[in-house]
Amino acid sequence: MSQQSGGHACQSCQIRHLGVLARLPAEHLGQIAQTFHPHVITFGGQETLYYQGDSAQYAYTVRSGFVKLLSMLPDGRTHIVRVLHAGDLFGFEGIVGGKYAHTAMALAKVEVCRFAINELIAVKQEYPEVDSVLTQRWIQSLTKAEDMLVELGAKKTGERLGAFLVRWCETAPKGIEGWVPLPLSRVEIGELLGMTVETVSRALSEWKRQGLFQERGGFIRLPDVERLCANVCNVSVSEVLNVG
Amino acid sequence: MSQQSGGHACQSCQIRHLGVLARLPAEHLGQIAQTFHPHVITFGGQETLYYQGDSAQYAYTVRSGFVKLLSMLPDGRTHIVRVLHAGDLFGFEGIVGGKYAHTAMALAKVEVCRFAINELIAVKQEYPEVDSVLTQRWIQSLTKAEDMLVELGAKKTGERLGAFLVRWCETAPKGIEGWVPLPLSRVEIGELLGMTVETVSRALSEWKRQGLFQERGGFIRLPDVERLCANVCNVSVSEVLNVG
DNA sequence: CGCGGCCTTGAGCCACATCAAGACTAGTGG
DNA sequence: CCACTAGTCTTGATGTGGCTCAAGGCCGCG
Fold first, then answer.
1. Among A17, A132, A136, B81, which lies 20 to 30 A Cα-Cα from B238?
2. How far from the centroid of its chain's Cα atoms is residue A244's Cα?
3. Out of B71, B78, B149, whose CB is closest to A79?
């Protein structure tokens, strides 16, 4: 089950540079401690942080691990809307309408920082540095969501999967020799990219055979990104990374 | 061609209640006139306001008519990312990265209000009322984009088209007896929903035959929304309107 | 009247979903 | 240590929704 530590001091937070307080000068961290009361919580894989429609009091930042935000249709079909990395803010949409727009689940063991939405609002109003980070975040989230719209709306399965892998490897924390963690099952990749498990599996197997894709215990590697893009997406790497 | 009027006074703006200055008390409108210099510009149908990748100086608000934001893949495939109504803000993503993320085109004759991005930033920093409207707008845009992700990722063509029509008719300015303007061609509907013209046309024709959909000179009507949802989406109206 | 856009309709095909077995892996308990 | 089980992944066989290609119809306009 989830575990909650006591109140947490932002001063000693190792990932502060990734979070929404990144630009706040260190000398203000003491002051905000009076209004801002974050808690660090740990969740195990597949545990649910909150459900779509729940009344939203808290927003979160990922400290380590990965979280998926997903939306379910009445008949049970599931779509993963976003996958969150260290430093990402989520659950903040509760500020409008008071409800969470998605269900949030830990992909594996994850550590998050939880705080009251209205406390963050207060900090945002007080400190322009926080405000500007938040503004940037929202615009980036919006742009990313809209890029994904293009992926889903205009590309076919192979192109989507290829582009996803390339982007993931660019974005995710790099391990040794290009091995990056991929904490998503085939089913989840399918739910993210709007395709079935079987289609995901077939494409990945094929690329393995062609030496374009390698996998070992939850880590993956793309030995020849250039060729993957050329073969599969029929575009250059830069085009995959730029827009859709 | 586009036509630009001179400087415009926010005090006399008929749609101020829809725009980002909606909550700003009238007595401040005079003050901001010193830093905030909006211009009203008119564009004809299919005219381009700006191109994806252009350096972004200005953001816009729709005053009347409709604007589409679209993204193009290198090979020419086009996806419509958003359709904007009166009051909608766009082009503001230029604040991050300095470039427009999409191409903006007028769907028919459209009147927009254009202003420098940094002027809006200044107003936002000065007036909390403007700041809070902007915050709400971004979160709503994000939520809407993510809802659309679910549409494209998890639903099939008929469901997408049905949900789109129902939502459009709920959202758009209502005309007489439920007739609503729909300024999109079949091609454009396809580009928005990730399907071909032919598929759009076939579905609409079929629904016309069944009496679920009517059309007259750019206006449409859904005589029996309840049945459309039940037949096509296999869900209730509320479910179509809520999330996915 | 003829021309160029849109829209519609049909016929055929293909990418991808669906259905159905196995294969592999990891955890569990005797 | 080895069955037993359950979950995930792979692979094949089959079906079909929607794309593609191709014609023709219906405007509005010069």
1. B81
2. 18
3. B149
Together in a domain, B47 and B74: yes
Nearest chain B Cα to A194, which residue?
B153
Residue A141: count other Cβ atoms within 10 Å of its Cβ: 22
pLDDT tens, residue by residue, A130-164 = 999 999 999 999 999 999 999 999 999 999 999 99
Confidence of residue A212 (pLDDT cuts 50, 70, 90): very high
Alpha helices in B174-213 (DSSP H): 186-193, 197-209
Same structural domain, A170 and A108: no
Question: What's the rounded Cα separation, in Å, for the pair A16 and B76?
Answer: 42
Residue A8 has pLDDT above 80, yes or no: no
> Is the domain of B84 the same as that of B121?
yes
Spell out the residues 6+ positions from residue B212 whose beta carbon is closer than 8 angstroms to its own. Answer: B222, B223, B224, B227, B228, B231, B232
Nearest to A139 among B95, B193, B239 (CB): B95
Residue A149 CA distance to nucleotide D5 C1' (Å): 41
Out of A12-16, A48-52, B196-200, pick the least confident: A12-16
Euclidean distance between CA atoms A195 and A180, whole angstroms: 23
| Mean pLDDT for chain B overall | 92
In a domain, A82, yes or no: yes
Could you tell me the distance in Å between the CA of residue A151 and the C1' of nucleotide D27? 35
Strand ranges for B56-178 from DSSP E: 58-64, 67-72, 78-84, 89-90, 103-106, 110-116
> What pLDDT, in 10s, does the model give residues A47-85?
999 999 999 999 999 999 999 999 999 999 999 999 999
CA atoms within 13 A of residue A7's CA, in its CB half-sphere: 8
Q: Specify the pLDDT at position B244.
A: 41
Surface-to-core class of residue B166, CB atoms within 10 Å of its CB (0-12 exposed, 13-18 middle, 19+ buried): buried
pLDDT digits (tens, 9 = 90+) for B117-156: 999 999 999 999 999 999 999 999 999 999 999 999 999 9
At B188, which CATH number? 1.10.10.10
Last residue of one domain, picked from the residues B92, B113, B141: B141
Report the largest interatomic distance among the alpha carbons of chain B, rounded to a whole angstrom.
Answer: 58
Q: Residues with Cβ < 8 Å from A188, sequence gap 6 or more?
A: A68, A80, A107
B204 CB less than 7 Å from any atom of strand C = yes
Q: What angle do CA A148, A153, A159 make, to 5 degrees?
A: 75
Are B149 and A102 within 8 A, CB to CB? no
Chain B residues with CB under 8 Å of A136 CB are 95-96
Are A94 and A178 in a shared domain? no
**A214 exposed, middle or buried (CB, 10 Å; 0-12, 13-18, 19+)?**
middle
